[in-house]
Amino acid sequence: MTKKLNISKGSVRQTVKEWTIITLGVLLYSFAWVSIILPADGMGGGATGIAMLVYYATGGIDGGVPIGISYFVVNAILITAAVFIIGAKFGIKTIYSIILMSIAMSVMQAVIPNNILGLANDKLLSALLGGGVAGLGISLVLMQGGSTGGSDIIAMIINKYRNISYGRVVLVTDCIIIGASYFIEHNLAQVIYGYVLTATFSVTADVMLAGNKQSAQIFVMSEHYKEIADLITNDFHRGVTLLDGTGWYTKKPTKVIMVMVRKNESTYMLSKIKALDSKAFITMGSVMGVYGEGFDTFRK
């Protein structure tokens, strides 16, 4: 009964954490577009970039179609592809992100005063800051297995079969969309700043996602190895390998737990192990790559 309860608590906590982070990422991304990029007549790529094209083409600040509405319509076409190609769980998170972002963008655009940050006349700062904040927001969403649609879905589909970075795929796709804005606004500066924004966005996303994928190898020596192994399996859903060892000084046999984890979950795991056995001997080291279930897929 206790074991089942622990599994339930750990699973609920992990689920709440995932959806909370996705929500935060979506709100950051929406704020970046509405309050940082849009006031400076910025331009970007992906589904949001297409929504911006529609906004400018229909009148812009003088009554253009709200970007939240166009964003939703564009992404509605991609939801089915996300479900069938990437998976149902990904599709559910994508649907949530798209709906929330459509609502957030529409509400923010209606409620937040235009040029609230005073960046309307500083297009370079708007592109750099907007790209950075948007990149941070999208990274939080992608780390939890979600997506905000558009170029993200394309990038994740390609990543499923080819080892090409997310940022590189988005960069190419977005450059095409940004370039198309010239035929609507006939503003070369807008196109150039759009490329600056997209480059900043891509670099930020790549740095964040690369850090999230870093892994660590942990060895644990403890008399309570059974309880620790159950803890790792039930609370962290990580595989455990039990090795036989011998203490050279004591000449006594001992059990050694080996587990591979993401670095971003290692600190919490170590604290839980120490709480269970304060005398546990633990070592942790970085590894170049981990390929297999729960980690990365090796691509030729």
TrEMBL record:
Q: DUF2179 domain: from which residue to which, for each copy?
A: 238-292
Q: What is the predominant subcellular site recorded for this chain?
A: membrane
Subcellular localization, as worded in the UniProt entry: Cell membrane
Q: Which Pfam families does the record cross-reference, listed alphabetically? A: DUF2179, YitT_membrane
Task: Alphabetically list the UniProt keywords.
Answer: Cell membrane, Membrane, Transmembrane, Transmembrane helix
Give the way it sits in the membrane.
Answer: Multi-pass membrane protein
InterPro entries associated with the record:
DUF2179 (IPR019264), N-reg_PII/ATP_PRibTrfase_C (IPR015867), UPF0750_membrane (IPR051461), YitT (IPR003740)
Which top-rank group of organisms is this from? Bacteria
Q: Which residues cross the membrane?
A: 21-40, 69-88, 95-112, 124-143, 164-184, 190-211
- Which sequence ranges form a coiled-coil region, renumbered to this chain? none
- Output this protein's name: DUF2179 domain-containing protein
The source organism is: Alistipes inops
At the highest ranks, the source species' classification is: Bacteria, Pseudomonadati, Bacteroidota, Bacteroidia, Bacteroidales
